[in-house]
Request: fold
Amino acid sequence: MKVLKFGGSSLANTTCFKQVANIVHDYGKTGPIAVVLSAPQGITNLLVSLVDSLNEGNSNQSDQELILQKLSAILEDSFTQFPSIDHDAIAVAFEDLSVRLNQLVQGAKLLSHCPSATQAQILGTGEKFSVALLNAILQTLGNETSLIDPEKFLTIDDRAAEPVAELEISKKRFSDNYSNLSTIAIMPGFFGVKLNGETGTLGRNGSDYSAAILAVCVQAKTCEIWTDVDGVYNADPRLVADAHLIDKMSYHEAMELSYFGAKVLHPKTIAPLSQNQIRCRIKNTHSPQNPGTLISSESTVGEMVKAISNLSDVAMINVSGPGMKGMVGMASRVFSAISLADISVIMISQSSAEYCISFCVPGSEAEAARDCLNQTFELELKNELLEPISVRQNLAVVTLVGDHMQQQKGIAAKFFKALSQARVNIIAIAQDSSERSISAVIRGQRTDDAIKVCHQNLFLKKPAIDAFVIGCGTVGKELIQQIHRQQPRLNDKNISLNVVGIANSRKLLLDKQGINLENWLPALNDASDQLSLQRLQAFILEAHLNNPVIIDCTSNEAIAMSYHEYLQSGFHVVTANKKANTASFDYYQKLRDAADAKQRRFLYETNVGAGLPVIDNLQGLMRAGDELVQFEGILSGSLSYIFGELHQGLSLSEATIKAKDLGYTEPNPAEDLSGLDVARKVLVIAREAGLELELSDIELEPVVPEELANITDADEFMRKLPDFDQTFQPKIEKAQQNGEYLRYIASIEGGKCKVGIQSVDSSHPLYSVADGENALALHTRYYQPKPYVIRGYGAGASVTAAGLFGDVLRTLAWDHEH
Ligand code: ADP
Ligand code: ASP
Ligand code: MG
Reply:
């Protein structure tokens, strides 16, 4: 014998009823079955609202009318879909239902409230309708059927906070009443009879439980729960699009999962099945060919964490106070009071000093819990031995479930780390003693992000980066190309790097699925958005992005000054733009504080030496307790090239023209020859080494005099530069006479930074650095007398983009160690 239960989502309209009828018809050919039905989708909600309004003494007819309208629409439709259906029989059954509903409603109106038996009878109307209609359809398909009335056997004990079935009584009553059933028997789910003989329900979603009770009574081998998803997923599929279907799970796992909120099963369903070794299978009415999820005593090895669930609308009650330490039996007094008030407790956490007991209850029961505790502890509260009982509403419980979490180390750590990466604050935690579940209480509105990141870290094990590239000049374009080229390899390494935003100074292109990097430029030109922090904030919220990274490929000051807000809003910031790190020291510090507070990365390896690993190395040395004693470096690729050429016989203007033609300079070479860019770089190094300097503290000797360096028009600058050759030439000659080279060197010594031309002999570490190379000589406490030298090409789109790319990967979700 098999029991098949079809939920409301499987009975939403006549087409669904038809699918159900076909499934039942086919199963009926293979052996006896019992079918349990819910109400058509949405009907119980309306019935609950009708009961609520009756209890409030409200005589509003609209719910009642709407219910009957919806049911009669399904009925009418079935007359069309099944022309040979027994119209008269079904019309009479429907008429009986509506008359009965009306009588119950009128009775309650007279009383100005709805007694519990009347409530249960009203609430079961949808289930009764489903049975009447499916029965008629099955008979039309030529099946012989019999009906089971749950009020004749399904016995409910409603004395505790939640109704439970009296299995032994139910079994006995069932065998007394139903010894002879047809191959197909049909029963409405959700309601039954209470110990006092009145109608009662099993609570919302209770038809699953009805099916389990019936399965025990008919001694079924299997109880199938048919719904609108392919089975149990490892996370709520409504929240996590790439949740995995679970093929097999143990009774224990299913119990924990449903208890902690997985709506696919009513939490009480599994216990009777497990006690009687009845297998349970979750199947999809809309794709019956799929095997679904099997729940049995078998527990699959290999998967430590099976699933994650979320229970919403939870409240936390806090009982605490100075007097609690000495009070004997506090926990027992708290929980007996709560249990006497029929309030169910979801989870408990208690501080070891017994100074505080916190527990969670359904949000709707929080006030009742507070009232009952206020009464119980009236005296203690009055004498201020206890603080006023506090209630925190709108919380959620997120739970990891898995049989094989037992004795495994590090799972809780991964769980809490994932929550911290999602920037979700944990309010309380609990682990059951069998170690099959670990729960964290969080703010309800953070549930989506929490579940998504936990799923990503614990199941997919595929960290995701959601990148926003700002600035589409040569570096930005090159970076996008490098990401595009590298994406398949990252994917193989289980890293998902998606560019979800690209912006230039006019447009902003967004796509939460990831922008197609093959052909992004036309799409950017067609985009209607513009870059703004607010737009990006709204976007990450709606797309639930947890690891968003801003990659600034501009040299724009306004963008640099908005990093603080980006960090505050949860973005990591990766930048090639030096303007932020060389703004005021206050701002410099503010950025680091915000990054620490928000657990985001602020990375700027390309600020000095483009792709050369300067900042990271320097930070590594500093962390290891080293100190920068002295620094010398060639930090500008264009000046390194120009100064090299000076000693090949070119004049300053000739060398500059050559460098410009090769694309080694800024569009206006005045910016290179002003030395300001080098000054910014040395400031970044100095600050990294712990010096609290401002840009204005740097002693700067430009290559060309200020009146030339300040020319903003490139053509004008290039026209005027040759006039300066005469003044400059003697410097070159003098160096050469001494066997020395001129180099444009940035240095730090004695807490001071200098940038300017130096004439160096062949013993100097920077003597041979030309051709566009950068070199940095770090004289530190550990590295002496020979310095730590970093050398290589320190400019150019590809090395800069590669440096940015490296920083982007360092933002990976669980790489927060630095
Ligand atoms: P029915 O009407 O068949 O009783 P429910 O709506 O009560 O269906 O339960 C099925 C729904 O449970 C699914 O549509 C799904 O959105 C939700 N659900 C929540 N968590 C899970 C999970 N872990 N696995 C499968 N479904 C889940
Ligand atoms: N119809 C009831 C409800 O919506 C029972 C069920 O569907 O399981 O709660
Ligand atoms: Mg359900």
Remarks:
- Residues 814-818 have pLDDT under 50 and may be disordered.
- Residues 87-111 form the longest helix (25 residues).
